[in-house]
Design a protein that fits this description.
The complex is a heterodimer of chains A (170) and B (409). Chain A has 170 residues and is of the alpha/beta class. Chain A contains four helices and seven strands, in the order H-E-E-H-E-E-E-E-H-E-H. In chain B, helix 5 runs antiparallel to helix 6. The mean pLDDT of chain B is 88. Chain B has 18 helices and eight strands. The chains are: A alpha/beta (170), B mainly alpha (409).
Chain lengths: 170, 409
Amino acid sequence: MSETLEQIVKDMKERFAVESSEYAGDTTLLLSPEYLQVAFQTLRDEYHFNMIVDVTAVDYWPQQEPRFHVVYHIYSMLNNDILRVRVPLNGNGPHLPTIEKIYPGANWKEREVWDLFGITFDGHSDLRRIVMPYDWQGHPLRKDYPLGYEEVQFTFNAAEIDKRKPYAKD
Amino acid sequence: MTNIREVTVDELRHLVSDRAMTGETMLLNMGPQHPSTHGVLRLLLELDGEIVVNCIPDIGFLHTGVEKNMEAKTYQKAEVMTDRLDYMNSVGNNLVYCLAVEKLVGLDVPVRAQVLRVILTELQRISSHLLWLGTSCLDLAAMSVFLYAMREREMILGVMEMVSGQRMMTTYIRPGGVWRDVPPEFVPAVQEIVNVMPGRIAEYESMLTQNMLFTERTQGIGVISAEDCARYGLSGPVIRGAGVAFDLRKARPYSGYEQYDFEVPTYDTGDIFGRYMVRMEEMRQSVRIVRQALSRLPAGPVLSDNRKFVPPPRSEIGVSMEALIHHFKLWTEGFNAPRESVFATTESPRGILGVFLEGDGGPKPYRVHYVTPSFVNLQSMPLLTRQHFVADVVGIIGSIDIVLGDADR
């Protein structure tokens, strides 16, 4: 961890009660959801993290508290540091404020997280599905969503499986 | 059978201007089968005559659920899926995944393997830029450049086939090094490319840089400022074309890039022409890196000898019981990675390519996420196309160099 980053982590601990950890040279902050917007505003304006690299999530199902971690990666061009911020979320239908106003680049990334994990970003300007079809049911990257497979048809059950197959008949 | 639900204009109300609701402006669908959308990109354009008022990109037609599929495979087997994301930069996709796995389990890579990785990713960068040059000029109605660019790209694909048996989906880079050592004819073949390329790049430039038909279509079109690039997280030639010398090979070196002498080209205009100039110079710099790498290619192993993560060579299996056990364990169960997460970044031909990888103590990744430059750069389409002609939209799509497999994953 560079000296500047060490100082930033120390400040963030005092101001937003984050927990920090380090693994293989990556620094992670564990931030509580209520401080989300103000913490990112501070990181961008006072600590020069001017670039959003990534917003994604991890599902820890069947664990419920927290069920999800939303993971942000931000980059500071001035100090050449990457910082990871994890935000734990409980329950099956979690809500989180958007950071689109702070980093416009988070717009599509939050849409993707909503699409694939079903985490609602409150205040988002355009929260539609992005990679899945408009009428898709469910959120595929959740751990309770099955991977899906094609049923193998044998002569004895070909007709039966054919009935269930989702394609246009006759 | 699910019913296909139609999307009405009302649902996109917040994305179009008021004039679209009265019918004063027209909503026009461009793609997903349009030849110059570089794959299956759909753009919903709001047009005032021929001027673009709003542009709403719609992606996802090539979504293959790679991230979900990778969660069901062991670390070694999941790598094969990564080639299929950005098919113009498959070596780079393998590299960033392997860097993440190596970071997660703490695996060292021999020097020879690192140099081979650099040679192949730089060759891939040249080949990706060549395809970009060919197709984006094709969009601007310059047919001949495409044929020239394909000629050189073929040489590079020949090298890929030589080392891995595959022209595009190589999976040559593996966790711990590379698959196997290169054949003896590898060095002369790469030498040939390195000798030929500078002259060929000059040839393309002589066709385009001063050509009025080209400059009229590119200069002052699709302008983006350096601040907007950072705000939207754009990277690669787009941000360098706007005058910021930001390159992860310099900023956060990996695979020994800090030992090579090369420059990060920039151009101040931020338009299509700027991105073109940056990419042309990048090809020259890549040639320079490959030349340096060839001159220092050391002898030695190409795969780590840490048998807990890397399978032993075939020759050992017949004589060593321990090697046989390792081989069996690695190809049936795989290796276990700790319950931690890492983030690895590389500079792909299109920008920041990152992998967020989380392990759960078992042999399969708990979560893999690809941070892909095409997805991020596409987000700038509404900004870049505003108040331009429909014909320029085609040039702008070409200039940000998207690969839809990369954007949709």
